[in-house]
Design brief:
The chain is α/β, with parallel strands linked by helices and about 250 residues long. It is built from 11 helices and 7 strands. Strand 5, helix 7 and strand 6 form a beta-alpha-beta unit. Helix 2 crosses helix 3. It is globular and about 55 Å long.
Amino acid sequence: MKTIFVSGTAGSGKSLLSSKLYDYYTKNGAFTSILNLDPGVENLPYSCDIDVRDFVDIVSIMQQYDLGPNGALVMAADLIASKIDEIQNEVNRVNPDYLIVDTPGQIELFAYRSSGRFLIDNITSEEKTSIFLFDGALITTPVNFVSIALLATSIRLRLNLPTVNVLTKTDLIGANLKKILQWSTSLNTLENAIAKDADGDTYALTTNILRGLNLSGFAQGLIPISNVTGEGFVNLEGALSRILNLGEEVED
C-alpha cells in the first residue's frame, strides 16, 4: 500500500483534490481508498472507506466537555490518535493499492500537533508522501506567495515526508497563472516582483525568507492543476509515481 497525505490551508481544495485523485487512480486500474481525517467536516465530495467521524464525534465532545467548536476540534485531533489501532484495522480491511488521506481543513490541527505526526508514523504503509496545496486564490501577490511557500516548507519539516507542491484553482486565477508559475521557477523574477510590490521593511523580510527557502531547495516549481477540468493530473500522478513507485506509472 502507498499512502498520500493531502494538506494545505483551509479552502485550498484538499477534499476535492482527494476526490479527483481517487477518480484518476481508479480510472487507471489502481484500487484506491480515501481516509477522512477531518472530524468536523459536514459534507464531503467523495465516499470514504475510512472516516474518523465513525470514531470521534465533535458534537458529543462539545457537550461533554463544554467546549466551543475550536476547542472540540483540538481535543478530537488528539482523540483520533488514540484510535490508531481501530483506524489501522479499517485500513487493513480495505487493503488498497493507494490510500489517500484527506487531512483536516485547519492545517494546524494535523501538522503542528504531535497527534498528526503520530498518525503519519503509525499508519502502516510501504511508501508515504505528501501533497501540499498552494491555493491559487491566495498567492496572486508575490508577498503572499512567499508566505505560503514558507508555510509549505514548515509543513514539510513537521511531516517529514517527501512532498509534491501543487497549485490549485488554476481555472479561476486567469492571467495570474503565468506569473505565479514564473515565481515558482525563477527566484530572480520573484524577487523583482517583491521589490515592485512591497515597502522597504516588507521587502527585506520577504527576500530574506525567500533566500532561506532557496537554500532548502524550495525552488522546484509547482504543478498546476484544475479540479474542475482535470488538467494537470497526469503531471501530478507522474510526480507521485517518482516518489512512491520509483518512477513507474499506474496502469492505463
